């Protein structure tokens, strides 16, 4: 056992001491958060073969990691909400009894850090000192986690100083679950290889996070999904605020009017892209505040104010290109960690749809050689001389579909620095939100943009969100449409029905409900029967944002339909719609279709929304502790909207 360092905060002392005794690491390092320390850990990992140092002229401060094949994304099947009562975890979460779970996991943690260093990471979710900010301590045996946390959160001495003064924090424990015997050589990506040995566990009532067996992304960087969404959503419900899977952006019109927008899209459905999008519409300026998580609090004036609790971007690499998201590429030019992308012979990185030619030869995410296709310079295959078709048939990609970059937010050329620092008009309130967008990948039925008729209707829209499952999660359902309410399905820290009720409460308890943001549902992903996207997306999404601003300002009429207020096609600006590439040009015929109600499609849609509600209600119906027949079920107000839309569609 290592010697536990001394901490001024008694709770920190107890937390580290406890896990030192259980996990028996070789030594303990308290992360101070300096640049030198960060670099030294990266270099240590290079020496151990866990990081590849990229060409420092092309990518200063950048490294590449390759994960184990079993450890490439979040594991929803092994993610648990451990509330005392099962009903409090609700119908969408995997529930376990907290006492039994701690007992089971303690067995796993026993001796799990043997031969390894235990790092103690003090971190802040939000700007240090901001009244909305929350603090955490992550104890981990993964240096990869340390350097990623350094980028994704504010870490080190400044946080510890805050805790020294007795500040409270969320205690987190993480282990890759791969102890080393004496003299045993470490591997490139230590983790528990069997999926059933991985645990991503939240104890919302104790406010604790216990993670074991995975080193990847949201499974291991515990400030992100585990804390800022699962634990925070429960806190937020209890305290009257909201923790959401949302980007935050600042939009400035040619008339210099400013708008703040948040958007909740499921994993790998376009948050990072929208958050730093380059508007196609002339004169419009977009700035980034956050790309994944927003904490929103009601202000004294009735508006909702948002901060981004994170400090960096853990962005999807494939598809990120000079055309689709130049600001993301610029964000990862320096001090960035790449995971599971292709290594090029000149020490740079590449991925599918990066918009640049593949190297003739490279090393794929598994560490195997890969080669440029003979008939497509932008594809790579596992053998020399392959065609694009052969590669596709193999289902091969050189960069993993959920390969990612971890980039500091300060690198983003369009960062709204004040907003990112939680400031608005010089005050640490966060920014006032004008519009909330929901969305998802929906190849059919769902229009380009649909405005809610009321807050309750907006909550209904969010509750009914759905999307094709993406590679951001290890699942056998990739590509199938599933309901993903408010893009939070994997991230609710409590019962989804209570969460819906909480959204409704935000209006009921508001000092001025007229000041709440307007709510919209957007869909950039409609496809033709032939499988082509009907909307160019990316920078062209600024056309939709402008319509939303016009609606907020009362400048345009909308088409009032059964499903919501749709734009008239003429009100979607087609200025600057002259790209040579038809994929990056709005097709006016498609646009008309995108703003028309597909009545038959919607009847089916409504039926599946109703079915999802029924499914949610089942849990309470089967639970003997729920006596009130309306309790712990989908709120009647949402059922009311469902009935109303159904009736109007039938007319
Ligand atoms: P997480 O980080 O997993 O929460 O994902 P995200 O919501 O931030 O998704 P991201 O912006 O990284 O986008 C994921 C994928 O969707 C990328 O491959 C993008 O190229 C693609 N994408 C994003 N926006 C658009 C769009 O407007 N149209 C189309 N067709 N694809 C898009
Ligand atoms: C997501 O899956 O929504 C992500 C990536 O943002 S992860 O941090 O792994 O959750
Ligand atoms: Mn996300």
Number of helix segments?
18
CA-based shape: globular
**Each distinct ligand:** guanosine-5'-triphosphate, sulfopyruvate, manganese (II) ion
Provide the helix percentage: 25-40%
Mean pLDDT: 97
Rg, please?
A: 24 Å
Largest β-sheet summary: 9 strands, mixed
Distance between the termini: 73 Å
The chain-level structural class is alpha+beta
Any low-confidence stretches, pLDDT <50, length ≥5?
none
Range of strand content? 15-25%
Number of strands: 33
List the helices and strands and how they pair.
Blueprint: H1 10-23, E1 27-30, H2 35-47, E2 52-53, E3 63-65, E4 79-81, H3 86-89, E5 94-95, H4 98-109, E6 117-125, E7 134-140, H5 143-152, E8 154-155, H6 157-164, E9 170-175, E10 199-203, E11 208-212, H7 217-220, H8 223-239, E12 242-244, E13 247-252, E14 258-264, H9 271-275, E15 285-290, E16 294-298, E17 304-307, E18 312-316, H10 326-331, E19 337-339, E20 342-343, E21 349-350, E22 361-363, E23 369-372, E24 380-381, H11 388-394, E25 404-408, H12 417-420, E26 431-432, E27 435-439, E28 449-451, H13 455-463, E29 466-468, E30 481-483, H14 496-508, E31 518-522, H15 541-552, E32 559-560, E33 565-566, H16 588-594, H17 599-622, H18 636-650
Parallel strand pairs: 1-6, 3-19, 4-5, 4-10, 7-9, 9-11, 14-27, 27-31
Antiparallel strand pairs: 2-3, 6-7, 6-8, 10-11, 12-16, 13-14, 13-15, 16-17, 17-26, 18-25, 19-25, 20-21, 22-23, 23-24, 28-31, 29-30, 32-33
The chain binds guanosine-5'-triphosphate, sulfopyruvate and manganese (II) ion.
Residues 245, 267, 292 line the site of manganese (II) ion (MN).
